[in-house]
Amino acid sequence: MTDLTYEQPLNEKIRSYLRLEYLSEQLTQNLTHDYQHQCFYPLFSLCELNERCDYRSDVIKDIDKQLHLLSAWRSSPQANAQQIDELIASMMGMRESLQTPGRLGSELKQDRFLQALRQRFNMPGACCNFDLPQLHFWLGQPFEQRCHDYEQWIASFKPLLHTVSQLLKLTRDTAEFSSVTANAGFYQGVSDVPLSLIRVKVDTAQGCYPTISGHRNRYAIHFVDFETQKHTDKSIDFQLSACR
């Protein structure tokens, strides 16, 4: 039995955070596995996303919101004051790390090697050694040296990526998984409070996957049979978490 977890953001902010988290996981894997030239795809994707939008302002607003909630919770007699204080200190440190001048990753635009690669990476089959001899040379360096270069390239993004990861953890922790059934492959839910993320955990043995849609207070889950790629009529047991 293998459970897979699917997530659906219900607002644009969480959608962006999930994209950043996904790229962060790929960047981390590239520091432990030698994926050759493929390591540049998440790096360039991160650069492009960050050029479209400076996420720091939204992230700092979220940190301030969490700090306000934590301060309120600390006054509760049931609260673990020490744990809350540690979390507050951590959030304050993350907030400070984000308050740097200039746009994140702006120094990479001055790197002639990276810019030469980035201009060609969107072209099909453009990573041949006759197209990019400088890439061929770099890939010929020891993996340890390439990891050192890679660490330097992603260093300025780390405060943002780490903070986004922690904010998503707090979001996921707002709700636990509960067992529910989708009759005839369909489930619909409503909430009295605005939701930001729907999480579905389903056993692959059931041979289907969920497609999730919704917004704030209402969401719907349709299960699709993988073999036929059509909506299933079977009753599907799964785990559901509706996060605030």
Automatic annotation (TrEMBL):
Main location group: cytoplasm
UniProt entry tagged with the keyword Cytoplasm: yes
Encoding gene (name): zapD
Upper taxonomic lineage: Bacteria, Pseudomonadati, Pseudomonadota, Gammaproteobacteria, Alteromonadales
Name of the protein: Cell division protein ZapD
Keywords in alphabetical order: Cell cycle, Cell division, Cytoplasm, Septation
UniProt KW Cytoplasm keyword: yes
InterPro entries the record matches: ZapD, ZapD_C, ZapD_sf
Family as reported in the entry's similarity comment: Belongs to the ZapD family.
Superkingdom: Bacteria
Organism of this sequence: Shewanella corallii
Pfam families the record matches: ZapD
NCBIfam families: PRK05287.1-2, PRK05287.1-3
